[in-house]
Amino acid sequence: MKVLEVDGIRKEYGSLVAVNNLSFSLEEGQILGLIGPNGAGKTTLLEMLATLLRPSAGTAKILGKDILTNYLEIRRHIGYLPDFFNLYNDLKIDECLRFFAKTYKVPADQIEQRIEYALEKVNLTDKRYELMKNLSRGMVQRMGVGVLLVHEPDIFLLDEPASGLDPRARIELRDVLRDLSKKGKTIIISSHILSELSGFCTHIAIMDKGRMVLWGSVDEIAERADGARIIKIGVLGDIAQATESIGKYDGAKIDSSDGNMVTVQINGQLEKIAEFNRYLVESGIKVYEFSEQRKDLEDIFMAVSNAAE
User: Is the predicted pLDDT of residue 226 greater than 80, yes or no?
Assistant: First the structure.
């Protein structure tokens, strides 16, 4: 089911085009990593999807409802966390979560359960009676995520949510987002720090100067950025003979050979990888490991940037 459909959305500020005719869609459970330098248009896009900013042209639909005409209904189904936000400093953590639960009209018999869930997920259970004004920057950032968890929206719009978090808290945030994805929640998370998004996004959108430079699933973008797939092969027996046989396969290029491990580049889709695997078996090579080495976002971004130059 398509949760989000963006159709030619655009935002202008005089002669400045902050977002330039973007179109894409997301389904239940997908996580989009929105990547780009400061000023790329990421925040402007999120604010339009959050119905806080009216597009100059184009539109978007969330759960089939148009952001221009059904914005009040849409707000019941989205959770937006801006880069900078304020919470009530004189409230305790659990009071703050309870306030937002009531604001979001969470059923009374579910409020305590959701508060407990949110505190656990953002690792603030032991701080529940602490005043907001006494929290560190990282704790406040986690509370922002906690407020959204109490709401339980269908789509999360997160603008630099890892800002101010220590390494452990960033890992915990990724775990929370993976858990939400498994529950069918759709997530857009922006960052200009690529390592923050590595390993858990299903899709990537690279923005620059308001345009979508590249969009697609992680696998699609990795292939478009660099058509070769990197395969790591563990071999038992004569490694020299195995390497010779691998080198004869059409489309295979040996990158390196270290001990019993051979790293190979293969051009082609998954069908080509399956054919290569069968070739190894039929050639009598004893393979104990056969795995694809996934490119991280830094590799993809650099490949795209180099191709654009």
Answer: no
